[in-house]
Specification:
About 50% of the residues lie in helices and about 10% in strands. By secondary structure, the protein is of the alpha+beta class. The structure holds protoporphyrin IX containing FE. InterPro entries: Cyt_P450, Cyt_P450_E_grp-I, Cyt_P450_sf, Cytochrome_P450_Monoox.
Length: about 450
């Protein structure tokens, strides 16, 4: 699969994308749909040279399963964090998301136990309850904004499950801060010409204020755990117990707060988008909604639990199809450390490689009629027959999403809980999104909810 660097040296460079420079500049910044036009013009592995190398690193976009596997499925010593992660690190300090591979390993080892498939089951009660509270509030039925409601549900789930706090009242303020900070970093990372970091531009000052506001929230979380040793906050406790393998010293308060911030960011927007999109889809497809209701009702008239998930197979299919059509991480970036072989092309050391998850999920060679909503693409037989590199909402390879089991459990329990109690009718025929960093609904996403008899 992966040629050693010397062998890669004999391969041709990926073909240069033929689109005009100005168009490419725009497309690269449309983090989701831009991928489709770039691939249509340049193929599944395409080199994008919009400015001289001394201004911006060489840039290659990869869209096919084998090329993606060659980038992220390899020994991670050959591909590293990229300019996007560097910008996040500059703005919000060290964290699991941004640490270079070498420093990342011990942090990952310390935090992984909180997020295993087995351990996240203990959070199931919080997850179902957050969705039930929404259902209770809407017993009278009426008009809702699915975007706002799902944000609240996922923020509550995350807060109560791993952070030891109820984030209910601050959900909207946190979401706003997160968008300001993440939009600034992604935008900056993809600019061929950037203002120096020391220059206090208005956008940078706004992003810094947003980060400071979130760090204050995380500092309060940490203090609350110190003040009350019985407080149930597994992620905060894991960070407090983590040690540096070389020095044996614990993490600084600053590092703990930075990690908590990144978990709020990575663990909230993403699941909120997945749940909102799945509910919106069900609100447009009553027949699929009826099937979810039937299986969730068959479980019984009680709170749904992690043990019920195997009986919620069609609900899971809906979530997979929602994640295919609207992957919350539309793409990810890596930096190559050596020349590497990617689907028969040489990608030079120091290249920014953009992995196009959005385009992969809409590849007509893998997904016939890719725009059509069809949960049967994820029937047990179809899943069994599918290559694992065809569907990558949580990425994969050496550095996948640590929150995958958490997100899967949370969205499955929430979707089944809500739809079992309330009929959803989505008013809008489209699901508009913004992609400041991760993909978020461009709310409002209006729907009518009606209690089921
Ligand atoms: C539907 C929901 C989610 C999706 C689609 C998703 C997707 C992803 C993807 C694609 C990455 C790789 C990013 C990169 O390498 O640049 C990632 C990383 C990460 N995710 Fe998620 N995620 C979701 C939910 C969560 C949740 C619930 C949490 C935590 C509670 C979380 C925490 C993280 C963290 C900390 C990383 C960095 C991991 C590392 O580098 O080791 N995510 N996620």
């Amino acid at each position: 699969m992966t040629a050693p660097p010397t062998e890669a040296g004999l391969l041709p460079l990926a073909p240069r994308n033929p689109l005009p420079y100005r168009q490419l500049l725009k497309l690269v910044r449309a983090l989701d749909t831009g991928q489709l036009t770039i691939r249509a013009a340049g193929g599944p592995v395409t080199r994008i040279q919009v400015v001289p190398k001394w201004l911006f690193p060489p840039f290659v976009a990869v869209f096919s399963p084998d090329a993606i596997r060659d980038v992220i499925g390899r020994n991670d010593a050959l591909s590293e964090r990229c300019i996007v992660h560097d910008e996040v690190r500059d703005m919000a300090g060290d964290s699991l998301f941004v640490l270079p591979n070498e420093l990342w390993r011990p942090r990952k080892r310390a935090l992984q136990p909180v997020f295993t498939k087995h351990n996240v089951r203990s959070f199931g009660g919080h997850m179902s309850r957050a969705a039930e509270e929404f259902v209770e509030d809407r017993r009278a039925g009426g008009e809702v904004d699915l975007d706002v409601e799902c944000r609240r549900i996922t923020m509550q789930s995350l807060g109560r499950s791993v952070l030891g706090v109820d984030l209910n009242d601050s959900a909207e303020a946190i979401a706003e801060h997160m968008h300001v900070a993440s939009a600034y970093t992604a935008d900056r990372a993809l600019r061929p010409i950037r203002a120096p970091r020391w220059l206090p531009t208005p956008a940078r000052r706004r992003a810094q204020f947003a980060v400071r506001s979130m760090l204050k929230i995380t500092a309060d979380m940490l203090q609350a755990c110190r003040d009350d040793p019985t407080r149930d906050a597994p992620l905060v406790r894991a960070l407090m117990a983590a040690t540096d393998p070389e020095t044996g010293r614990g993490l600084s308060d600053e590092d703990i707060c930075n990690d908590l911030l990144i978990f709020m960011l990575a663990g909230h927007d993403t699941t909120a988008t997945a749940l909102t999109h799945a509910l919106w889809l069900l609100g447009r497809h009553p027949e699929a909604q009826d099937r979810v209701v039937a299986e969730a009702t068959a479980v019984g008239d009680r709170q749904l639990e992690p043990d019920d998930v195997p009986r919620l197979g069609y609900t899971t299919q809906i979530l997979h199809e929602a994640l295919r059509l609207c992957p919350p991480a539309a793409g990810v970036g890596r930096m190559t450390l050596h020349d590497i072989d990617v689907a028969g092309y040489r990608i030079e050391a120091g290249t920014l490689v953009a992995v196009g998850i959005y385009a992969l999920h809409r590849d007509p060679a893998i997904w016939p009629d890719p725009e059509r909503f069809d949960p049967d693409r994820f029937s047990p037989e179809n899943v069994k027959a599918r290559d694992r590199w065809h569907f990558l909402p949580f990425l994969g390879g050496g550095r996948p999403c640590i929150g995958e089991h958490f997100a899967r459990l949370e969205t499955t329990l929430a979707l089944a809980t809500i739809v079992r109690a309330l009929r959803i009718e989505s008013h809008a025929a489209d699901f508009p999104v913004d992609v400041p960093f991760t993909t978020v609904a461009r709310g409002p996403i209006p729907a009518r909810v009606t209690p089921r008899g």
